[in-house]
Sequence to fold (287 residues):
Amino acid sequence: PHFQSDADWIVSIEQQASAQAGLINLVGGSPFVIPPKIVQPPAASAPTLTVSADHSWSWWNFSMGALQTVGGLVEMAAGASLAAAGIGGTLFTGGTSIAATIAGGMVVLHGLDVTVSGLCELYDGQSHDTFTSVGLQMLGCSQTCANIIDAGISIVGSLGAGIGSAAAKTAQIVKSADAAGMGATEALSAWENGSKALSNPAWEALGGESTSAIAKNAQINRAIAAVKAGTATAEQIQIASSASKLNIIKSIMLSPTGLTPLADLGAGAGGAASGAARTGRILLGEN
Fold:
């Protein structure tokens, strides 16, 4: 029987004892005793904790998705720069490098894979393996092993593309006529400064496509000096004003023209950092 309370339990025992006494009287006071049937009260069920097997949405996954998306885009930029350097003939030999172009293209494709995975994680807040990782798992790798290899591709690919592109471009810059008499560091600094995203009028005033970044750097420095001395022309004021601003929109518009050597290094480091963060996440089991 099932009992609703302790009172019910006590009543049941009393009823069984009374029935026993009556049965003894019926058999003429015989010592024969029917043992009572002891029914234990139902035991209280222990609380249980149910853990869902699926990955639910979380801010952690959302944040990692954002980091992975940015890392993938940066990896693509590093790969595209390497591919462009190979096509444009700026890779060490001065001629077109098919190997560099292919390698850069592969880095771009992997960066796209990482970006898509990151965007999916941004969308639903759940971790997603890249297509590269899924392919490795189909070949027999465990999920953890496949994800670590995938992250390693980002690290090696991004760093390799960034360093390779930066080294090749720097070598070409140092060998250019405008860098004659300059050291590698000075020439690189001049190139970076002369490659700033400027307004169209300022860029045209500096010679447009007919002058190199080093030549533009010299004109920018002269314009800034003239403004400080109070002897600047209207054109120099325009150049100095444009050079002192951070033209983000213009920089984005000019991104297809390629990265500077320092930007190549930055893209390589950024992609590698994203890969390292993903590796740490995998090793910590924070999926």
Remarks:
- Confidence is low (pLDDT under 50) at residues 22-27, 45-54.
- The chain has eleven helices and no strands.
- The CA atoms of residues 113 and 257 lie 23 Å apart.
- The two ends are 49 Å apart (CA to CA).
